Amino acid sequence: MNRHLISAGDLTRDDALLILDTADELAQISDRPIKKLPTLRGRTVVNLFFEDSTRTRISFEAAAKRLSADVINFSAKGSSVAKGESLKDTALTLEAMGADAVIVRHSASGAPQRLAGWVRGTVVNAGDGSHEHPTQALLDSFTIRRHFGRSASSRAGAPGAASPGSASRVPADGALDGLRVTIVGDVLHSRVARSNVLLLHTLGADVTLVAPPTLLPVAVGSWPCSVSYDFDSALPKSDVVMMLRVQQERMNAAYFPSVREYSRRYGLDAARMAQLPDQAIVMHPGPMNRGVEIAAEVADSARSTIVEQVANGVSVRMAVLYLLLGGAEGES
Amino acid sequence: MPAVNHGPGHPGLASSPAPAPASDSPPASSPAPASRKVVLEPEEIRRALTRIAHEILERTDGGAGTVLLGIPTRGVPLAQRLAERIEQVEGRPIPHGSLDITMYRDDLRLRPARALGRTEVPAGGIDGAIVVLVDDVLYSGRTVRAALDALNDLGRPRSVQLAVLIDRGHRELPVRPDYVGKNLPTSKQEVVRVMLTEVDGADAVLLGRADSEGRE
Amino acid sequence: MSETWLIRGARPLGGEPADILIRDGLIDSIGAATAPAGAQAIGADGLIALPGLVDLHTHLREPGREDAETVETGTRAAALGGFTAVHAMANTDPVADTAGVVEQIWRLGRQAGHCDVHPVGAVTVGLGGARLAELGAMADSAARVRVFSDDGKCVSDAVLMRRALEYVKAFDGVIAQHAQEPRLTDGAQLNEGEMSARLGLTGWPAVAEEAIIARDCLLAAHVGSALHICHVSTAGSVEIIRWAKGKGWRVTAEVTPHHLLLTDSLAAGYDPVYKVNPPLRTAADVAALREGLADGTIDCVATDHAPHPVEDKETEWDTAAFGMTGLETALRVVQQAMVDTGLLDWAGVADRMSRRPAVIGRLAGAGGELAPGQPASLTLYDPAARDTVNPATHASRSRNSPFGGMELPGRVVATFLRGIPTVLDGKIA
Question: Does residue A319 share a domain with residue A247?
């Protein structure tokens, strides 16, 4: 599995820190006039997006291009897939084109895994159904790490945001031990939640999920995190609050009675934000439903990392592409 | 084929434990095996660096407009030491930092993707500056070529010079050093190991035969 | 035109070796015998002799999906699995909801000649769940339908189920329910539990099966009718059926071979060969099903053989078809899950895979006894054989077996249908 990145659960603590440390270094590229490295010159990266997602696709495209790779964009609409071509046949076409890496987003859980059985190149999961979105979790952890002074640049003595509690709680390898992350929203249908629970746990953070009971999987008790139905009691104990998007269609399937009630009980508004500890940050993977899970003023506040999450996404994806493609093919 | 490490190597994202950070030699606590010979004692290293520092000052008009960039791993503490000596002599600090060249190597595809070293370019940048690259050993010259490519993407220096502690010959590219601590003729079967206190706990330069552990 | 066969040294129902003499389509004698003139002999040393297996639940796909299976290929697969009778489910195209269609299927079975084909009639027109189909006409037809099922779909409307249960009393029919509350399983892909949560697949809760079973047991008791539960898959279902039987109600149940052996952890790689309705469940469910089959709460094993063409299975999980083939591996899986674990002996296998299904299917003159005077429908099975299952060699047109690559014991050596061999030396005769 080390040839692909399909689940955040496949990454050990060391794997994850390697990606984050590498992303740390590569983040400097955005400040240079020449935002390019020659490392993946001559490699072909295919963006295979069966679901619309301009933001993620552009992020991967920027990452690949900054490493000098050739990028081919394939979106399902208006393509042979729309005419009924199967996933397998699409995969075989990519093989014939000599794709070194396929970045795939699909509405069916498990599609990247199936794809990996049909292509020789590297498969990177850009979001599959309700299953996982590992690069999102990585950029979220990257963002948290930077904010709480855990990244190598901060640890080397450069001034950064203060760590909560005593400095002795910061682990030597710059992981997230001791940080309390609360994830709020539609966990049941969220691939971002699944990847984050796995990765944050691997990196040592304490994770709490907050949602109405209808939006939590029946088996959530076996996950490495705590669960609460009460958002307000979780607020003062959170260093990070990560809000998940809630689709209004869920109301029609009786997951919650109305958008108003959901927002009242589980929305992050200014009043709730004021209950957070001083150094706590607010995150959101986007796109946001302003006014539903997050109030506009919270999204635009100083605590919000939503914009920098996007920038961090490019650095993290550069790191992933480099580590998967930049060296010798396959395992040594 | 043994994995030849020039830094912590990881086959993609394998879950193998990361080797000791920022070290590509065995820790200094293990005594130099009998097959290794000490060719430079700590005192000699100290004197060589002092001489190089003075030479730099001579050739850069007192270090004006000059930036020292050490190439990780051991080029970095060497650049640091040179900067300290220069500051002692001239009475004012000289900008220094590090330049990781991993992404510019020409042999990336031969080994698993490696972790990156730190790049820290001083605040003034390198445009119009005399950049002195600092590394521990000059061998094929490919590292320096990669460093020149990296510098190219960072800006436009006025000129680039090269300072190395050891020149062991066997150049594969037209690269020549401006400052050399010691010329050490070697055969290709031999291994040169530089140890520095900041990284390895002690200062020494060792010469030995390549054995089954690879370049160690 | 019938043949005389002497089977030497087989072990009927796993008992002491004996010779079985077959003459004029009947079992002539069991015990030491000398070959009469003109008899063909089979050396059956070490082989178990079982009455011909009866499958209450098979999908032969013809008419309509002949790309997946036909009556010809499906009955070959059945014979190779030791079956002499199969009940062909009604979810064909057109649906088997009229006398005309069931007779067509019945005739196709007779023409193929590899085993008896008993068409199952749909309960509702077009499996639409709205109007009763002409159950009486199907019962009176040449196909003599007695088992009715909307399998593939659940008869979820309580009133319609009540009416169906009542109506079939007139001709000793039985409704076989596919227990799946549709609203609780909307878009469901995999057993609802740890695996589905981890894999991000919509869960299929056990209660969707158990709630329907409980309701239908109570309905059957209330109107005094017989009820058969298809492919029981959860521990809770077994408990409910045990309770219902304890009350003396006329409830029977079947379990598939795959539910006796496989769990939902196999879905980890998202390979849709493991996608089936009802879904694979947990190890606790497998244990309860085995116990239920052993103590008779579950009456029989039925394969739910569900062939699908490659393109319907070689996709992402969500869009793949539900179903697994099973005719050719059924007896081997039962040996692995029940006999080799000591839960059931060969006499028990004969009961669960031949006698009881024949009773439930109301099959006159079939199923179940290896005794002189009985029809010579039997199968010879070598329990000591062992090999790796290779679906590419199966007689079924389809390759979607979840046991591909698995080592299983046993091998069907020969199958006889009323004295005529359909399989000899492991091949179609």
Answer: no
How is residue C350 written in tokens?
A: 């004969």
Residues of A in contact with B103 (CB under 8 A): 37-39, 322, 326
pLDDT at residue B31 greater than cutoff 70? no
Q: Is residue A62 part of a domain?
A: yes
More confident residue, B153 or B7: B153
User: A115 lies in which domain range?
Assistant: 8-132+311-325
Interface chains of chain A (3 or more CB pairs under 8 Å):
B, C
Task: Please give the tally of structural domains in chain B.
Answer: 1
Burial (Cβ within 10 Å: 0-12, 13-18, ≥19) of residue B176: exposed
Q: For A8, which residue in chain C has the nearest alpha carbon?
A: C198
Q: Among A141, A140, A143, A122, which Cα is nearest to A6's?
A: A122
Tokens of A42: 């001559």
Residues 18-47 of B with CB under 8 A from A: 18
**Beta-strand pair C227-229/C174-177:** parallel
ipTM value, please give it: 0.87
Query: Do C345 and C290 share a structural domain?
Result: yes
Q: Where are the beta strands (DSSP E) in chain B?
A: 37-40, 66-70, 96-98, 130-138, 159-167, 179-183, 190-195, 204-209
pLDDT at A159: 41
Express each pLDDT in C307-344 by its tens digit: 999 999 999 999 999 999 999 999 999 999 999 999 99
Residue of A nearest to B125 (CA): A32
- What DSSP line would sit under A208-249, residue for residue? EEE--GGGS-TTGGGSSSEEES-HHHHGGG-SEEEEPP--TH
The domain boundary residue, chosen from C328, C360, C392: C360
In a domain, A159, yes or no: yes
- Domain holding B75, by residue range, is 42-186
Is this prediction's pTM over 0.80? Answer: yes
CA A319-A321-A322 angle, to 5 degrees, is: 65
Q: Determine which helix (DSSP H) or strand (DSSP E) holds B75, and give its type and residue range.
A: helix B75-90
pLDDT at B176: 96
Count Cβ neighbours within 10 Å for each residue of A21-56 and write b for 16 or more, e otherwise. bbbbbbbbbeeeeeeebbbbeebbbbbbbbbebeeb
Copy the structure tokens of residue A129. Answer: 């159904």
Size of interface A-B (CB pairs under 8 A): 92
Strand partners, C16: none
Strand pairing category for C53-58 and C48-51: unpaired
Residues of chain A with pLDDT under 70: 1-2, 77-84, 152-169, 330-332
B153 pLDDT higher than 60: yes
pLDDT in tens, C259-284: 999 999 999 999 999 999 999 999 99
Going by C-alpha positions, the residue among C121, C159, C200, C411 that lies closest to residue A125 is C200
Looking at residue B24, what is its pLDDT? 43
Residue C149 in domain:
yes
